[in-house]
Specification:
Blueprint (H helix, E strand, L loop, with lengths): L6 H4 L22 E4 L2 H13 L3 E5 L16 E5 L6 E4 L4 E5 L4 H11 L3 E2 L10 H6 L7 H4 L6 E7 L5 E2 L1 H4 L1 H7 L9 E8 L1 E2 L4 E9 L4 H11 L7 E11 L6 E11 L3 H11 L10 E4 L1 H13 L19 E9 L5 H13 L3 E8 L3 H4 L15 E9 L9
Length: 401
């Protein structure tokens, strides 16, 4: 363990992803103690915190939108899992044990070093910690084929309020149900997950296509809302909207960007897209064939502003995403009407802070899993997930736009 202001702690990169929670206007207290420790020290920290009437915050990757893993309004102890990062991949049984302090980027990289035809359905930002990501559900580009990260979690190690280290059998099925989508930190400190790996083809296709309002973006967005959740489950086409400078005299306009991973080659993808989503106008030149791990690097690059053709080792960089932002999630059951889209565009035009909206299609496997299977209820009937976000530049920000 180490005190917050000790020399040892100040030399360690702090996992604060959204700098807005370090600003003076945020009501908060600094942690009384930061515990960066092994499992036995976590057990001792829990017991000592109870004796001194201190709350506990658990930080894995530090990506939670409200900063709940590193700020509080009451005295608290911060348990940082950054040194619990061991990953054991079992190719023969298509499973892996991953400690909760590991990032999903580190997990993806470890899988790719053992197999070219196994993957895992989790998020696209490599610096997200597995501890919080899996316990919140964990959606990504493979969810239309395989569901959420939490749907593919088969065991866990958790330290309960009494300091007991429990596996799935020891904690019981009710608690194991609750920590997969219900927020693991609500029930104890998760220190490791056992997951099922999923088969992926040796060749995967990705694309990123942008259309502005002058290029009929509004009509394409409307069509996307109708078809994205009904496409072949191997296809996941995400759509984002933001304000950009138009090529026409530098005027501001709204751009819709369509980003996709397809579990197959480009010769399979193009006919499927032409049949179900011809409005996008996808052509072979828009597409890149790569490996599954290559597709992960490509998608992560969009967040950090890199080229997307880096080696998989880029996924091991735990400090590539640090920015000032505010995010909020929503879920849609019906397409947004044209009037609503116009209002959304107007908001993106007028907002002085950089605003963006991301739409993630559901359907496929997500329609097949019961809303009560785990505490993540957004299943059949939901056509997309929406992420509203605003961001701004501060000193030390490192993420792309």
């Amino acid at each position: 363990m180490t005190l917050l202001n000790s020399p040892e702690y100040l030399q360690i990169p702090v996992h604060v992803r959204s700098f807005c929670y370090k600003m003076p206007f945020v009501v908060k207290q600094e942690p009384y103690l930061v515990a960066i420790c092994v499992v036995s020290h976590i057990q001792a920290t829990i017991i000592c915190s109870q004796q001194h009437d201190l709350q506990i915050r658990t930080r894995s990757g530090g990506h939670d939108f409200e900063g709940l893993s590193y700020v509080a309004e009451v005295p608290f102890v911060l348990i940082d899992l950054m040194y619990l990062r061991e990953i054991k991949v079992d190719v023969d049984n298509q499973t892996a044990w991953v400690q909760a302090g590991a990032t999903i980027g580190e997990l993806y990289y470890s899988i790719s070093q053992k197999s070219k035809t196994l993957g895992f359905p989790a998020g696209l930002c490599a610096t997200v910690g597995t501890g919080g990501h899996f316990s919140g559900g964990g959606y990504g580009f493979l969810m239309r084929k395989y569901g959420l990260a939490a749907d593919n979690t088969i065991d866990a190690h958790i330290i309960d309020v009494q300091g007991n280290l429990l596996d799935r059998k020891g904690m019981g099925e009710d608690l194991f149900w609750a920590i997969r989508g219900g927020g693991g930190a609500s029930f104890g400190v998760i220190v490791a997950w056992k997951i099922n790996l999923v088969p992926v083809p040796s060749k995967v296709t990705v694309f990123q296509v942008a259309r502005t309002l002058e290029q009929n973006a509004t009509e394409i967005i409307q069509r996307w809302q109708l078809v994205a959740n009904k496409l072949d489950e191997r296809i996941s086409v995400w759509m984002g909207m933001k304000r950009v400078n138009s090529s026409q005299h530098g005027k501001l306009t709204i751009q819709a960007t369509f980003v996709s991973t397809f579990l197959g080659d480009v010769q399979q993808l193009i006919p499927l897209m032409r049949k179900s989503f011809p409005e996008l106008g996808l052509v072979r030149e828009d597409c890149t064939e790569t490996s599954w791990i290559g597709s992960v690097v490509f998608m992560n690059a969009g967040l950090v502003g890199s080229a997307g053709n880096e080696s998989p080792e880029v996924l091991l960089n735990r400090t590539q995403f640090r920015m000032s932002f505010k995010g909020k999630s929503d879920y849609g059951r019906k397409p947004i009407p044209l009037e609503g889209l116009r209002g959304l565009c107007h908001f993106l035009y007028d907002n002085e802070v950089r605003g963006a909206v991301q739409f993630v299609p559901y359907g496929g496997r997500m329609d097949e899993i019961s809303e009560s299977e785990i505490p993540f209820p957004h299943r059949s009937g939901y056509i997309f997930h929406i992420l509203y976000s605003v961001s701004w530049q501060e000193e030390g920000d490192t993420a792309g736009s």
